[in-house]
Automatic annotation (TrEMBL):
Keyword Transferase: yes
E.C. designation(s): 2.7.11.1
Protein keywords: ATP-binding, Kinase, Nucleotide-binding, Transferase
GO molecular function: ATP binding; protein serine/threonine kinase activity
Name assigned to this protein: non-specific serine/threonine protein kinase
Cited InterPro entries: Kinase-like_dom_sf (IPR011009), PAK3-like (IPR051931), Prot_kinase_dom (IPR000719), Ser/Thr_kinase_AS (IPR008271)
Source organism: Pomatostomus ruficeps
Domain of life of the source: Eukaryota
Family: Belongs to the protein kinase superfamily. STE Ser/Thr protein kinase family. STE20 subfamily.
Length: 131
């Protein structure tokens, strides 16, 4: 990112495969492709969670694909930084279809909400839409 005058410019890698959401709408993915997307997202979430960060908006629109098979988790605007003393959040953020029950019940939640959301993405890849 660059600060030019009073404007912040953010440079991101171009992912020529588009979002997972757009792919799901166009084609039925093969089982191996779905597994690869899940594996790469789990690796990204593992890295975030190891650094005490909850993504809080894992969904197909925020998973970007490359034509070379690369997978990137994107849109970190709703992330929450936790500490070893405070490992739960309670604010309700995210997108309805992908929200874990803890959100809806307004209960404290931790990193597991990202895993729930990725599970919804897996169902979406299988069925072509979220449950």
């Amino acid at each position: 990112s660059y600060l030019v005058g009073d404007k912040l410019w953010i440079i991101m890698e171009y992912m020529d495969g588009g979002s997972l959401n757009s792919v799901i709408k166009e084609v039925q993915m093969a089982e191996g492709e779905m597994a690869a997307v899940c594996r790469e997202c789990l690796q990204a979430l593992n890295s975030l969670h190891a650094n005490l960060v909850i993504h809080r908006d894992v969904k197909s629109e925020n998973i970007l694909l490359g034509m070379d098979g690369s997978v990137k988790l994107a849109d970190f605007g709703l992330c929450a930084q936790m500490t070893s003393e405070q490992d739960k959040q309670s604010s309700m953020v995210g997108t309805a279809h992908w929200m874990a029950p803890e959100y809806v019940n307004k209960a404290a939640y931790g990193t597991k909400v990202d895993i729930w959301s990725l599970g919804i993405v897996a169902i979406e890849m299988l069925q072509g839409e979220p449950p």
